[in-house]
Amino acid sequence: MTALPATAPSAVVPSGPRPKRVAASRIVLYGILLVAALYYLLPLYVMVTTSLKGLPEIRLGNIFAPPLEVTFEPWVKAWTSACTGLTCKGLSPGFWNSVKITIPSTVLSVLIAAVNGYALVNWRFRGSEFFFTALIFGSFIPYQVMVYPLVLVTASLGIFGTLQAVILIHTIFGMPILTLLFRNYFASLPPELFKAARVDGAGFWRIFFQIMLPMSLPILAVAIILQVTGIWNDFLFGVIFAGTQNYPMTVQLNNIVNSTQGVREYNVNMAATILTGLVPLAVYFVSGRLFVRGIAAGAVKG
Amino acid sequence: MAETSIDAAAAPPPSRFLYNLFRRNLSAKVAATPMVATVLVVFVGCTLWTVYYSFTNSRALPTGDFVGFAQYERLFAARRWNVSVRNLLLFGVLSLVLSMTIGFLLAVLMDQKIRLENTLRTIFLYPFALSAIVTGLVWQWIMNPTLGLQTTLRNLGWESFTFDWITNTDMVIYALVIADLWHKTGFVTVLMLAGLRSIDDEIWKAARVDGIPTWRTYLSIVLPMMRGVIITTLVIVGSAIVRLYDLVVALTDGGPGIASEVPAKYVINYMFSGGNLGQALAGSTIMLAAVLVFLIPWAIIEFRPKKER
Amino acid sequence: MASVSIRDLAVRFGAVTVLQKLRLDIAEGEFIVLLGPSGCGKSTLLNAVAGLLDVSEGQVWIGGKNVTWEEPKDRGIGMVFQSYALYPSMSVRKNLSFGLRVAGLPKAEVEHRVARAAKILQIEPLLDRRPSQLSGGQRQRVAIGRALVRDVDVFLFDEPLSNLDAKLRTELRVEIKRLHQELGSTMIYVTHDQIEALTLADRVAVMSGGLIQQLATPKEIYRRPVNRFVAGFVGSPSMNFVEGRLSTTGGGVALEVGEGARVPLDGYVFATPPQDGRPATLGVRPEQLTLAAVEGGSRLPVVFNLVESMGADSLAWGRIAGALASMRVEPEEEVPTGRPVEIFFHPEHASLFDAKTGERL
């Protein structure tokens, strides 16, 4: 401060007394945020440390203590040999089932929703707005209301208890939010673009694939993130529609942890829990802003 | 001119009308079939099916024996259903009020041009990326009375510390609230923050020029301006509460006893293992009615101002 | 080259009527400008000609063929949009050739046409760039090029210059005029900018309320507006209006303004015989007013209160019989302000409207 040339006092004086007061309230502000952050981080910390401890160490009864002796055995067991009630093959079959469910469901639901959004914005037909509104309202109906008739529908299609059934169900219930997302996105594009393409003689599908899709990469990413995490985390549809052989990871995880037979292996349980959360967490940390944009875009304007 | 002579014949012939009705935008109509089918078959068809069969005597399989409101009478007489409804009401009020309040306050704190905003947001939001099953299992372990937080603090010297909520019939519902808040408050915070950021900077400048204190600006100017975001968040959080299922299955599985049962679980249990479909369908119809209580006022608020404009 | 004929065209969106039974015949090679305030229906009319919306009634004919129900691509039209509407994911070359490729033209032909259009518009160096790498003026050239390559008979322009700054706007305006002279194509051009309309058009259609108010050459529109709307809309600053009452008594026709002031209208050519006592509005453009007395001119009482310098000339603002009025004067001219003076005009250059219907008298 003293080094400042005397010609610039006016620039220094007004900012004199304020910083101190600001600093005091800033400490309180950061204090509260720090406490909140700790509350959010604590379970993650407990999960990780527990999964790296041996059972005897866990029985010492301090969930906050870092592991004295780090062991990866619970992780190996969770992946390969933990018992889900019926079999003892660990979580790996569930992982692969979840992959087999998530990828086709995501591709299918995103594609259909993109076409929906495009048709709703650029190719309105009689009743299109009505169906869109009905779709959005339908997304609020509790799944429990529609689940049993859907069991009957999938059974009559001969796919109940298969991967196809879960994929169909995810495609159906992903449609409202994704359609909304794409509709809002396409509506934000200049309508002249579509008109120009029509004057150029391009039809429905050509405009979609050559003009619209190349322009929707950001929203495609948002939709994919939304679907991958949503479908991976699903429990209800997996347990009802997939059939025992195809249980997704969440269902198998719950079976491992909440199966009541034998000794409870908390370290294995926590390792299994982290393993199940790993895919959505990875998606979340890698995509960051897009994830936030996805949930905000879906919610802020309906 | 030659044109004029065929002028009369140039009105669109009837086939043109048919063409417009069916063939025009045909691709769009074909492309929209999945949407139309979803609305008609699933949202309308399946819902009506459920409502209809909730008035029948269906047991393991749906039957057409009409019994009027008998299923509903049994439902409201059932202790497990009543416990479920009471639990959901308590859970719902707490979860809604706390997540909205804490979410908004955290958003306001994060709106103070703080450092590490992105890091903090990442921390607050990561639980939302996890499944409710994962959430339930983590908190089940932390709240484990024999080896979890309770024992840890007692071993550290706080002998009288008691935290046995997940095994305590009276407290178990609060355990659910704690896990649930951890899971979704970050989501509310992010939405509220987006709402705060959407408010024009000049509003803040005007309020400062007028000498209105910051807290007052938030309360009297910003909060009313965020009406849209708040209502939408309320609707999303509210309809998610009615569906509450996964978290309960993972954290307590309805226990101890039936102390943490919820309607969604009641419905699924009776539907697939209780062999009492009629009860399940009646229960889910009540859930539908509960959602409509949220949805209809929202729809009225959302769609009315658009007409005025 | 093709003529365009719009016959009793009506467009309605639900209960809202945007175009009301509109008729317009455009000759081959003619440059027509649709001019009007926003919401007058001019863009709707253009979109209807392009086939981008469903008309409720009436027909569109292009080149002697009823195209009312044809797809846009089959109408022989090219269109240039205000927002350029270049496909962002394609290079300039791909943008230009997209329509030709859709139509399945042979590769050599596509290349030939793109090269020719690029040459005419001087955008050859830009062919491999993306639209995002171009300036606004360059983008609009590419957009014009996209219409050009299609070898169309009719060009449709939807406010093509509105997004450009003033300097570029003038440049491209000249370019479009040159293009019209070179190609000789029929052009329909929508704008709300009267300078564009008056400089470009062979004929201007002034629109309001979904109807064409006047269809005439720019000169005619400016000098003999058919109603008060056209008179007020075209010209900047706006035409001055003085309310009064016609008087045929006392030798010759005159307008009685305020308390007994008589403004003689000798030399004005009436479209309908003047009726005594009829409420009427006199319209005089700012440059038709002079401070100095003119031979055979009429006088108007005015109080000036402000002089704006515009560079090349100045505008004197004041009130005539209570209504705001302006007069164009030379920059060095002294304008007396703050006191009543008289200014002069030739009634034969002025306009007279029925005060009730707004129609020219």
Automatic annotation (TrEMBL), chain A:
Q: Which residues cross the membrane?
A: 27-48, 101-121, 130-151, 157-182, 203-226, 270-292
Q: Name one Pfam family in it.
A: BPD_transp_1
Q: What is any one GO biological process for this UniProt entry?
A: transmembrane transport
**Keywords from the UniProt entry:** Membrane, Transmembrane, Transmembrane helix, Transport
Membrane topology is: Multi-pass membrane protein
Q: Where is the signal peptide?
A: none
S-adenosyl-L-methionine is among the record's keywords: no
Subcellular location per the Swiss-Prot or TrEMBL entry: Cell membrane
PROSITE patterns hit by this protein: ABC_TM1 (PS50928)
Note the InterPro entries from the entry: MetI-like, MetI-like_sf
Q: Name one GO cellular component term.
A: plasma membrane
Tell me which residues make up the ABC transmembrane type-1 domain: 95-287
The record's comment on protein family reads: Belongs to the binding-protein-dependent transport system permease family.
**PANTHER family the record matches:** ABC TRANSPORTER PERMEASE PROTEIN, GLUCOSE IMPORT SYSTEM PERMEASE PROTEIN GLCU
| Protein name as catalogued | Glucose/mannose transport system permease protein
What does the organism's lineage look like at the top? Bacteria, Pseudomonadati, Pseudomonadota, Alphaproteobacteria, Hyphomicrobiales
Automatic annotation (TrEMBL), chain B:
List the GO biological process terms. Answer: transmembrane transport
Q: Note the InterPro entries from the entry.
A: ABC_transporter_permease, MetI-like, MetI-like_sf
Please give the GO cellular component terms listed in this UniProt entry: plasma membrane
Q: Which residues cross the membrane?
A: 30-52, 88-110, 122-142, 171-196, 217-242, 280-301
Where do the ABC transmembrane type-1 domain residues begin and end? 85-298
Q: What is its main location?
A: membrane
Name where it's found.
Cell membrane
Q: How does it sit in the membrane?
A: Multi-pass membrane protein
The record, for PROSITE patterns, names: ABC_TM1
Keywords carried by this UniProt record: Cell membrane, Membrane, Transmembrane, Transmembrane helix, Transport
Cited Pfam families: BPD_transp_1
Q: Which family does it belong to?
A: Belongs to the binding-protein-dependent transport system permease family.
The protein here is known as: Glucose/mannose transport system permease protein
What is the species of this protein? Prosthecomicrobium pneumaticum
TrEMBL record, chain C:
Give one GO biological process term.
carbohydrate transport
Specify the ABC transporter domain's residue ranges: 4-234
The annotated topology with respect to the bilayer is: Peripheral membrane protein
Compartments where found: Cell inner membrane
Q: Which InterPro entries match?
A: AAA+_ATPase (IPR003593), ABC_transporter-like_ATP-bd (IPR003439), ABC_transporter-like_CS (IPR017871), ABC_transpr_MalK-like (IPR015855), ABC_transpr_MalK/UgpC-like (IPR047641), Mo/tungstate-bd_C_term_dom (IPR008995), NA-bd_OB-fold (IPR012340), OB_MalK-like (IPR040582)
Asked if the record carries the keyword S-adenosyl-L-methionine, the reply is: no
Q: Which domain of life is it from?
A: Bacteria
User: Record's GO cellular component, any one?
Assistant: ATP-binding cassette (ABC) transporter complex, substrate-binding subunit-containing
GO molecular function terms attached to this record:
ABC-type transporter activity; ATP binding; ATP hydrolysis activity
* Alphabetized UniProt keyword annotations: ATP-binding, Nucleotide-binding, Sugar transport, Transport
- By its UniProt entry, which Pfam families does this protein fall under? ABC_tran (PF00005), OB_MalK (PF17912)
Q: Which PROSITE patterns match?
A: ABC_TRANSPORTER_1, ABC_TRANSPORTER_2
Query: Which PANTHER family does this chain map to?
Result: ABC TRANSPORTER ATP-BINDING PROTEIN, MALTODEXTRIN IMPORT ATP-BINDING PROTEIN MSMX
Similarity annotation: Belongs to the ABC transporter superfamily.
Protein name in the entry: Multiple sugar transport system ATP-binding protein
Q: What organism, scientifically named, is this protein from? A: Prosthecomicrobium pneumaticum
Recall the taxonomic lineage recorded for the source organism. Answer: Bacteria, Pseudomonadati, Pseudomonadota, Alphaproteobacteria, Hyphomicrobiales
